[in-house]
Structures are given as C-alpha cells and as structure tokens.
Amino acid sequence: MPAKKICEKLKKKDPAICELRYEKPIDLTGRDISKMRVKELKNVLSKWGEKCNGCTEKRDYVKLVEKLWPEHAPKKDEL
Asked: For the chain, how big is the Rg over CA atoms in Å?
C-alpha cells in the first residue's frame, strides 16, 4: 500500500502522522562517491562534523570525503 494512502487513513486518528520524516542512514561502503550529488556530499560532511571551506566544485567535495573517509568509516565491530 502506498505511503500516501496509509497517511490519509491514519490522519483521521492522528493528524501529525503524515509529518513524520526519517533520515536515511549514510552508508558509503561500496558506493562510488564521485557519482553522489553535491547535496549528499555536504550532508555526509555535516554528519561527520566537518566543513569544506573553499570548496567550489564537486571534485573538491569528493576529494575531501575520500580523504576523511578512513577517520569516519565504521569499525568492523560496529557493523
């Protein structure tokens, strides 16, 4: 059943149900970083608490994410 239909049915009981949003977890393992959008790369950096000062092009963001990935990669025991 589509989410829109479920929302319409449950809205009668609780109007706030349709406003719930969950963020997708960021998983970069096995993903081609160069194919990600700039918005996604910025989101990854902000989740890590990093900023890209002076980044003007996508390749700047890609280089920074690739450089910082070893520091922020999940440990084997965290998986």
From this structure: 18
